[in-house]
Design goal:
CATH architecture: Roll
Order of helices and strands: HHEEEHHEEEH
Distance between the termini: 11 Å
C-alpha cells in the first residue's frame, strides 16, 4: 500500500487514477500549486505520473512566459511552475492528453542514464525511490541527489510498486 498515493488518500484521486490511462489527474499541493499528473497503468491497476518539468517545449513558449511572469528563470521547472506555464487547471481532471489541455507527449530517446531518488514533498512512504529523472538535465528541480539505475534496476523498482488496498 502506497500511503503517499492520492489513490490511497482521496476518493477523487482513487476514481481518477483508476480511470483509463491517458487522461489528466490534477491536484492541489498545500492549497497553493496546481500539479499535473498523467494517468498511466496496466489494466486493473492504479497509477499516475507527476509531471515535474518540461525541456525544450515544441510550441507555446511565449504563452508560458506570459503565464509565469515575473519569474522567468525556472520557467517550466517544478510541478507547480510547469502546470502554470502550460496552463493546466484543476478542471482539466479526466481530460485526455492533447491540444485542448496543452499537454502532449512526444516519444523521446533515452540517451542519458535514468536516476532514481526518494519522492519530494511527501510525509508518508518517503523511502521509496520512485522519483525518476535525468540527472544531467538543468530542468530537474531541486534534490538532484540520487543514483543511476539501469533497466534491470528500473524493472525491480516497478516490481516493488505496491498493490493499492482501499479502506
Amino acid at each position: 500500500e502506497d500511503l503517499a498515493s492520492h489513490a490511497t488518500m482521496y476518493r477523487v484521486g482513487r476514481e481518477t487514477i483508476g480511470s483509463a490511462p491517458g487522461v489528466l489527474y490534477m491536484q492541489r499541493s498545500y492549497g497553493l500549486h496546481t500539479m499535473t499528473n498523467i494517468v498511466a497503468h496496466e489494466p486493473g491497476k492504479y497509477g499516475a505520473v507527476l509531471l515535474r518539468a518540461a525541456e525544450d517545449p515544441v510550441e507555446g513558449l511565449e504563452l508560458a512566459k506570459a503565464r509565469r511572469l515575473p519569474k522567468q528563470s525556472a520557467l517550466l521547472v517544478g510541478p507547480g511552475s510547469l502546470s502554470r506555464g502550460v496552463g493546466t487547471l484543476l478542471t482539466d481532471t479526466l481530460q485526455p492528453l492533447g491540444a485542448e489541455t496543452g499537454v502532449m507527449l512526444a516519444p523521446g530517446v533515452a540517451d542519458t542514464p535514468i536516476w532514481a531518488s526518494p519522492r519530494i514533498g511527501i510525509t508518508r512512504a518517503t523511502e521509496a525511490l520512485w522519483r525518476l529523472f535525468d540527472g544531467s538535465s538543468q530542468f530537474v528541480s531541486r534534490h538532484r541527489r540520487g543514483e543511476i539505475i539501469g533497466e534491470p534496476d528500473l524493472d525491480r523498482l516497478i516490481a516493488q510498486l505496491p498493490e493499492l488496498h482501499f479502506r
